[in-house]
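Before a colleague's protein record goes any further, I have to sign it off. My question to you is simply how this chain folds and whether the tokens agree. I do not need a full report, just your reasoning and any doubts. This is what I was given:
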Amino acid sequence: MTVSRRYPRWIAFASMIIISAIVIFPIAVVVMNSFKSRLFISSAPFALPDSDTFIGFENYTTGLARTGFFSAFGYSLWITVASVAMIILLTSMLAWYITRVHGTLTSLIYYALAFSMIVPFQMVMFPMSKIANMLGIDNPVGIIILYVGFGAGIASFMFAGFVKSIPIALEEACMIDGANPPQTFFLVVFPMLKSTAVTVAILQTMWVWNDYLMPYLVIGTEYRTIPVAIQYLRGGYGAVDMGAMMAMLFLAMLPVIIFYLICQRYIINGVLAGAVKG
């Protein structure tokens, strides 16, 4: 019986190792090639850098100079932080409202959110860019409104699912003590949404930070985000500086990796806390 119980655990452990290797391998290839010259990237992309192929940080300095990386990093950081913060704040409040208040309006909002997740972005991207230009929101501040709109669907559904598990008696007790709805939300409900908020923050950060189409269509090349700036490493007739591109790709993914490693423990703690509460 002991052997039969351990056997599935070893299968699960081996499966996780294989999946982890599959996920990490492309990142490792990017990091390795960021320290090699363009010739060796094409001829031996999976080989480790050695005395013949290693060129130090030359690809990084070239990429930083050609892309205006620090300016693009500033725009990406501002758009990502502001968009994710607004998404978490507004969608958590919306989820609480449509979960606790039942009526025609909340039903319409619910189905509108569901519809927003069904419609592909490619169907609305050109009308969206035109309307954004007409409304004067085709700038690093106005694009935040668009990200909130596109990210509201999945975030609201995630928050709503957790709000349903919160006993309404807690909110009623807070209101009996004299709290108004905003105080009830921020003092009782929102602190309990911490684990869900972190999960939403990670998913939305990965999307906004790596998004190419919306910044390119809405704010163009005047305010380059990192994905847009990296494309300028492509030369004429399809020529690509692969070494500099690999270096910039690694720098672009590094903040998201660090952010995930910092926040993952909060997700685990939130899941464990929910399991203990029952």
User: Anything to note?
Assistant: The longest helix spans residues 242-277. The chain has one domain: 71-277. Residues 71-277 form a domain with the MetI-like fold fold (CATH 1.10.3720.10). Residues 146 and 201 are 17 Å apart (CA to CA).
